[in-house]
Amino acid sequence: MTKYVVDQSHSHIGFQVKHMMVSKVKGTFEGYSAEVEATNLADLTTANIAFTFDVASINTKSEDRDNHLKSADFFDTEKYPEIKFQSTTITGAGSDFEVTGNLTVKDVTKPVTFEVTYNGKGTNPWGVEVYGFEAETKINREEFGLTWNAALETGGVLVGKDIKINLEFELNPEA
């Protein structure tokens, strides 16, 4: 098995959620790490994947909203500073894979499946192998204890239940 590291300057952790029933709030986690081991990274079924998001690094381009998300109303970063994922099963072939694993948010762990696309392999100008992947899943935030909301006078709620999570990873063999 070969270990791979995330090239953070060419990777991205993002999410989006409905806001006021009419638009979307998008954000990122600026701090994260990943551990990937595989016999052949082009065949993702040989991999073991784990990643961790630093919840305090959340960025939605609104300091007030970010502080609210870090509070006990949502992530409670003082008590639960990380979101973690550990793969359990990987299926697929070619460029399309399903990576199922345990996602832990706050003190709740549930299985989720990421739809993963292998974008290919290249060699950078310094002779290092580069592998590209995109992944997406959708979770119900309330199932992970993120239940704060506010009713709107016009009907509906301020924050949608479904969160889309998208990952873009560029991986290199560990030096």
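The record above closes out task 2.4. Task 2.5 opens with a second protein, given below.
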Amino acid sequence: MTNRIENDASSRAFIQCSKLTKAYHKGDQVITPLRDLDLEIAKGSFVSLMGPSGSGKTTLLNLLAGIDSATSGSLRIGTNDLASMSRNQLAAWRAREVGIIFQSYNLVPVLTAYENVELPLLLHALSRSERAARIEAALETVQLMDRAGHFPRQLSGGQEQRVAIARAIVADPPLLLADEPTGDLDRDSAAMILDLLGHLHRDRGCTIVMVTHDPSAAHRAQIELHLDKGQLNRTVEPSHASASGGAH
């Protein structure tokens, strides 16, 4: 039976996984982190993924990003069938449609915050003034315009992650994928990042899928999914979502 996750704002499935399976060889063993996963997520949902190590969380995130390909099954995001797309098509689609937030920030150390945020826009046909307007808007959203000229080494961990979020949203993608976005942060910085994700979900209508090991972070999402051995169970926590502004 398909796990259908709906948002009050829309019942149309934005992400559709059918019998999605990922397997790979490790020596003589076949490892299958995801097996026959059926899942539908409506546009505008904020979903958290939890589960033990090896449960398939990051594997699913990589498939959703088009970074990895499934062994079998189908995956559609919007009108795009990811399995039918070439590597170049996936790269172009990802540049338009997906923002990725990493646990380790993945900022380029020799570039300023402004230049790091600019990187995704270099793949788009924009004038310098158009790029500047988008970069400044993204940095204002994460409240770091005053750090635009700083290098990553001059920023705190929380500030680095906010720059990474600005980079993820600067092209205004409809889908944000976050892999342990608060994993390396102290409690106060983590709370700020989660507040920011809630704001992006509520005010921009982004569809967010967030991998986390932290139950308190998972509770900030509209919907909690629990993966175990590549299998999925759904938990909805409307009281937490409402408290964080995640539900509509």
